[in-house]
Amino acid sequence: MAVPKRKTSRARTRHRKAQWMRRSRPTEATCRRCKSPVRPHTVCGTCGYYGGRQAVASDD
After folding, report:
1. How far, in Å, CA of 24 to CA of 39, rounded?
2. Rounded distance, CA 12 to CA 33, Å?
3. Mean pLDDT of 33-50
4. Total-model pTM
5. Neighbours of 44 (CB within 10 A)
């Protein structure tokens, strides 16, 4: 059975374990109605529309 010759350093271990935690920037879509940037599959915070229909009453 293979045995490591040296102890793996804490920095090397943490760097290896942190690889899966890397995150990419969150994607942004544009609202079809007001063209403001919104997260995909969420109601627009500016106009309150989602999927071409008004989902939330806005203060406009």
Report:
1. 14
2. 49
3. 92
4. 0.53
5. 23
